[in-house]
Amino acid sequence: MTDAHTLSLGVLGKPHGLRGDLALRLYNPQGRLLERVAFPVQVVLTDEDSRRAPATLRGARRAGNDLLVRFVGVETREQAALLTHRHLHVPRASLPPLASGECYVEDLLGLRVTDVEGRDRGVVAEAFFNGAHDILTVKDAGGAEILVPVVPDFIRQVDLGAGYLLVDTHE
User: Fold this and answer.
1) Strands 164-167 and 112-115
2) Which of 161, 159, 123 is nearest to 141 (CA)?
3) Domain co-membership, 125 together with 79
4) What's the pTM value of the predicted model, to 2 decimals?
5) Which of 101, 75, 103 is closest to 4 using CA atoms?
6) Position 155 pLDDT exceeds 80
7) By three-state DSSP, how is residue 23 classified?
8) Same domain, 80 and 114
9) What is the CB-side half-sphere exposure of residue 98 using CA atoms within 13 A?
10) Nearest to 120 by CA among 133, 130, 131, 111
11) pLDDT value at position 96?
12) Does the chain have fewer CB atoms within 10 Å around its N or its C terminus?
């Protein structure tokens, strides 16, 4: 669960060590956003029922494909374990500015999708990372789905203001 002011970055995993560190499984393991944030930063944690809880993230460091994160007030392995499986949402204002023409994949959710042949393909319903790149799930009114890789060969135009996405499905 996210909103227009936050960006969901990943899910907290198991505690790491004895001092309250937690593994953060990033939705996009190639992402480097948290490494450029000025700490401490106020974040939101959500649980499986989408209940929101504020927290203060005091640091993050790389550990393989994961990040290890620490929160203010979490000093023991037992305290850290209570946060396992929570989703981490970071305020967009705390993230580095995007370059011209860039957007977050999460911003594509809900956009109307048309293909290069002019066919209405539906709406971006969800996105996931497949290990190489992000994939959009586009659903039409009848529930049919197409999967669109978020790479330049497939994503031809994005207009967030108009709520529009032009894709080449290579069909």
Assistant:
1) parallel
2) 123
3) no
4) 0.77
5) 103
6) yes
7) strand
8) no
9) 9
10) 111
11) 82
12) C
